[in-house]
């Protein structure tokens, strides 16, 4: 399936039905009072997350979503039927902006999360509502209100626990293919990975976490060089970053600093995430290679995805960091009680 992480769509909620002008007409009641019914509400437009979706591809083919209008009111005080709502399915991690103002309307990260994006217009009142002692036969009713309409920009930021960052050919795709069920394209040339890949990493018997592999970053990615800038958004939601540098790099320390520099230029907040430095391809490292201390307080783990060296230690460390972030994000019991009361 083709990966698409941005799209623009037009949505319009349904208009409300018009109120009805009608008077009772029954045998032996020659001058019945007004009995015009109300119009039905126009259909709403909802967004709902679907964990089975991983791309915005569908929105490249269908760009307009228009809900039904409400049915007009009828005589005998009959209210028109409400217009049918539309529910638009989007992937978890979809950011929704008003295309005109670029204001963020919603950030949909939860599973089966629903958001009312456009309200249908209210139905108009029938003439029965406008009768007064001095105006007993009103010959007018209220029109239905217009439904809300707007153009949306959708942006997908993948939901993952661990984000892999590195230069092209740093071994990210090989790593994710070995420790998860993901099957990315792997080859010995730059930019083999052209789209983000997600993999579920099984840990011990009943535990797991999600890892994201994005296309390789090159120096200048934050200014638009290469593919890195286009996909860096997909590591903004990750709990941890694993910064990969190949053991055959001519200068491991300089490459590591360059990667951090590109992350900082794109979004300074990325450097606030916990990170682990990973030296890959130890199976082809020179015998005299010394693993440098790249950054104070950051663990450096040498691995080989080919031989399996260091992979258990890497999974142990990643799980420890992921579970620590999950515990810190859990709401307190006091907070849960306040939410329930509200």
TrEMBL record:
Principal place of residence: cytoplasm
Keywords per UniProt: Cytoplasm, GTP-binding, Hydrolase, Magnesium, Metal-binding, Nucleotide-binding
Subcellular location: Cytoplasm
E.C. code: 3.6.5.-
Record's subunit section: Monomer.
The protein's role, per its UniProt record: An essential GTPase which binds GTP, GDP and possibly (p)ppGpp with moderate affinity, with high nucleotide exchange rates and a fairly low GTP hydrolysis rate. Plays a role in control of the cell cycle, stress response, ribosome biogenesis and in those bacteria that undergo differentiation, in morphogenesis control.
Family, per entry: Belongs to the TRAFAC class OBG-HflX-like GTPase superfamily. OBG GTPase family.
UniProt name for this protein: GTPase Obg
Organism: Chlorobium ferrooxidans DSM 13031
Upper taxonomic lineage: Bacteria, Pseudomonadati, Chlorobiota, Chlorobiia, Chlorobiales
């Amino acid at each position: 399936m083709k990966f698409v992480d941005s799209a623009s769509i037009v949505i319009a909620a349904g208009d409300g039905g018009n109120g009805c002008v009608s008077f009772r007409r029954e045998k032996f009641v020659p001058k019945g009072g007004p009995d015009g019914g109300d119009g039905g509400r126009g259909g709403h437009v909802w967004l709902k997350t679907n964990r089975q979706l991983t791309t915005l591809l569908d929105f490249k083919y269908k760009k307009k979503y228009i809900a039904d209008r409400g049915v007009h009111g009828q005589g005998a005080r009959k209210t028109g039927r409400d217009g049918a709502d539309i529910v638009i399915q989007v992937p978890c991690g979809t950011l929704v902006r008003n295309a005109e103002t670029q204001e963020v309307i919603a950030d949909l990260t939860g599973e089966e999360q629903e958001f009312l994006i456009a309200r249908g217009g209210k139905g108009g009142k029938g003439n029965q509502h406008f009768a007064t002692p001095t105006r007993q036969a009103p010959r007018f009713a209220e029109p239905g209100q217009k439904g809300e309409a707007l153009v949306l920009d959708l942006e997908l930021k993948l939901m993952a626990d661990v984000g892999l960052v590195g230069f092209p050919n740093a071994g990210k795709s090989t790593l994710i293919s070995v420790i998860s069920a993901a099957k990315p394209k792997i080859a010995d040339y730059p930019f083999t990975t052209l789209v983000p890949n997600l993999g579920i990493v099984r840990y011990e018997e009943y535990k797991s976490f999600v890892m994201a592999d994005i296309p390789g970053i090159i120096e200048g990615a934050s200014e638009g060089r290469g593919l890195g800038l286009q996909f860096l958004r997909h590591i903004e939601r990750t709990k941890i970053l694993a910064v990969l540098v190949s053991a055959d790099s001519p200068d491991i320390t300089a490459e590591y600093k360059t990667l951090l520099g590109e992350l900082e230029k794109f979004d300074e907040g990325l450097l606030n995430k916990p990170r682990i430095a990973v030296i890959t391809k130890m199976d082809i490292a020179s015998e005299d290679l010394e693993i440098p201390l790249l950054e104070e307080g950051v663990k450096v783990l040498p691995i080989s995805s080919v031989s399996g060296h260091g992979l258990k230690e890497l999974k142990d460390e990643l799980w420890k960091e992921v579970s620590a972030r999950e515990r810190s994000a859990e709401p307190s019991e006091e907070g849960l009680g306040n939410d329930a009361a509200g």
